Amino acid sequence: MHIRPFRDLINDRIALSGLSMLALISFMAIFAPVLSDYSPYDYTGQIFSPPSAHHPLGTDSMGQDIWSRLLYGARTSLFVAFAVAILSSALSLFIGATSALLGGIYERFWMRVVDAMISIPTIIVMILVAAYLRPSILLLIILMSLFSWPGGARIVRSQVLSLKERMHVSAARTFGADWKHILINHITPDLAPIIIAMMIQDARRAVFMEAGLAFLGVSDPMMISWGKMMQQALAFTYLNVWEWWLVPTGLALSLTLVGLSFIGFGLEAAMDPRLQKYKQRRVD
Amino acid sequence: MKREQFGRGSTLNYIIALAAIFALNFILPRLMPGDPLHAIYGDEALVAMTPEMERSLIREFALDRSWIDQLQAYLMGLSHFDLGYSYYYKDQVSSVIMGALPWTLLLTGLALVIATALGIILGIESGYRRGELLDRCIVASLMFLSGFPDFFIGILLLLLFGVALGIAPLSGAITPYAGLEGFGYLEDVIGHLALPLSSLVLVQLGGIYLLTRNTIVSLMGESFILTAKAKGCSEFSIKYSHAGRNSLLPVTTATGLRIPHLLTGALFIEIIFSYPGVGSVLNTALNARDYPLIQGILLLITVAVLTANLIVDLLYSRLDPRVRYAH
Asked: How many residue pairs bridge chain A and chain B with CB atoms within 8 Å of each other?
C-alpha cells in the first residue's frame, strides 16, 4: 500500500489550519519593517502608553513599541525554529542512515549514544548550560540541535533498516543498481515524509525552548524574544498593561506552537494508514 | 522502535546518562573563562567572601590540584549529598531544596494522578464514539490546548481567575501569617493550589488523552472486541475491561515519558504563581546567579527523571509479558 502524505495533508482540515496559522506568523516576520514604523529597540518617549493609532499595542515598561517587538519576535522564533529543524534533522538523517547502512560497532556505538541522550531531560540540561553561557541566538541554535537529534536518528535508522529490505530495493539490486543509486532513488524519497515530520517536531520544540529559556531569563538579554517579553510583562500584572502586552505576546507564541503541532498531527494521521482507513470510511 | 531496547541494557543507558550529567555539572563551571571559584559560586557570592573562606573553598574543591583530584573531590561531595552552599539563601543547597520539595511533590503528584485518570477516561469515552460530535469537540479542543506552551496556560488562568475575576489568590501556597489550623488550613492550601494544579493538569491532559483515544480507535477494530460484543458484554465492560485495559500499556509508557515534561511544566507554573516549590527557588537562583543552587536543583530533577524512566522501563516488561519472554 502506498501512502501519499503530502496529498492527504492538503485535504486535512487540521493540517490546513496549522499551515494558515504558521503562514500568518511568517507574514508578520517577513513584513515586520513594513507593518511597524518603530524600531523594536527605540525608546518612544512614553512608558506604558495604552494602545493608540501610533502604537497599536501601546508601549512597555522600557517605552518600546510592543507591536514592533512582537513582529521582530516572530523573526527570532521562526529563525530559531527553521535553523534547528535543518541542523537537527541533518544530524538525525546522517547518523541514523549511516548506522543502518554500515552496521557493526559503528551502529552499536551511535545507538548507545542515542539511548543515553534520549533519557536525559533536554530542557533541564539546556537551562543549566544557558545559565552559565547566556547563549546568543547562534549558540542557542547549535546547542538545541546537539540535544534534539537522537530521537530522529533512531526513527531514521529503523526506517532505513526496513526500507533496504523492501521488494523494490531488491528488484533494483537485481538490475545491477549500486548502493548510491538505491539510497538516492529508492530510500530517500520514502524517507521524506518522516524527515518532514521530524523537522516539524524539532521546530516546535525549538520555538518552545527558546521562549522558555528567555522566560527564565537565561538567554542573551539583547535578543528580542516573546519569552523575554512575557517575563517582563508578568512583573506588571497589577497594572492593566497585560491586556495589550502579556496576552498578545502569549497568543503569538501559542499560535506558532499550535500551528506547528497541527501540521504535525496532520502528517501523523496522513502517514498512519490505520487512522486514515477510519477517516475515509467516515467520509464515505 | 523503543520496544526493542527495553529490558536489555536499559539500566546501562541510565547510568551513562547520569554520568554524562555529572560530567556536565563538573566541567561547565571549570570551562568558564576566569577563576573557576567565581564560576562555581557566581560573582555575587564572592563579594561576601573573606580570603580565609576562599582558601578553604579552594581546598575543599581541590582547585589548586589536578583535575583528577578535583573530580574526586566533586564525586566525594556528591556521595555525601553535599551539593554546596547557597550564598543567596545562606544555607546548604540540600536543605533549601528539601524545604521547597514538598510543595512541588504535592503539585506534580496530584497533577499526574488527575491528568492521567481524566485523560484515560476521556480518551476511552471519545475513542469509543469516534467521529461523533462529542468526540470531535473533545479532540479539537484538547489538540488546541496541548499546543499551548505550559507557561501561557498558567498565565491565562492567573489573569482570568486571579487578576480579572479576583476569585483566586495570586501567589503563594498559604496565606501568610493567617495562623490557620485544621480544616481552615486545608482549605487555604487547596485554594492556593487550585490554579497551579488546574494549569498543570490542562497542560498534561492533551497528550494522555490523544494517545488513549488513538489506541482505543485502533483497538475497536480488533476481533476480541467483536467477540465481546457478540457474547453480549455490557458497553461499560467493552469500553473499560476490554479496550481500556489493553490501552493501559502504551499509556503507562507514555506517562513515564511525560515525567520530564511534567517536572519542567511545574517549574514554569510555580514561577508564574510564585508557588514556593523547587521551580520558584530555581527562578530565584537563576536571577541571583546562585550557581550551586542552580546545579543542585537541576541535578535533582535529572536524577528524578532518570529514575522515573527506569521504573517505567522495568514496569513495562512486567505489564507486557511479550517483552520479557523476547529476551
From this structure: 137
